[in-house]
């Protein structure tokens, strides 16, 4: 699995997940339950992971929808 995005914005996580599901790309949100450790203040970023084989397509989907993707991850 490769990291596609990392963000503190829960709406971006939901939007990215919906975009990827619409393109039939499986994704896995990580660090969702870290709020227990941080006290629900949203300091720790959440990540969206995709399979290695889907990374190129997933990045293209996000770029096509105006979401900046770091190529280094």
TrEMBL record:
InterPro entries assigned to the protein according to its UniProt record, in alphabetical order: DUF2007 (IPR018551), N-reg_PII-like_a/b (IPR011322)
Transmembrane portions of the chain: none
Gene3D superfamilies: UreE, C-terminal domain
Pfam families hit by this protein: DUF2007
Superkingdom of the organism of origin: Bacteria
Name this polypeptide is given: Putative signal transducing protein
Signal peptide range in chain numbering: none
Organism lineage: Bacteria, Pseudomonadati, Pseudomonadota, Alphaproteobacteria, Rhodobacterales
Record domain DUF2007: where: 1-64
């Amino acid at each position: 699995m490769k990291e596609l995005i990392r963000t503190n914005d829960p709406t971006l996580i939901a939007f990215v997940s919906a975009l990827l599901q619409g393109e039939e790309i499986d994704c896995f949100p990580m660090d969702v339950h870290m709020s227990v450790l941080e006290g629900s203040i949203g300091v720790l970023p959440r990540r969206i992971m995709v399979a290695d084989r889907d990374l190129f397509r997933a990045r293209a989907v996000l770029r096509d929808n105006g979401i900046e993707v770091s190529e280094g991850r």
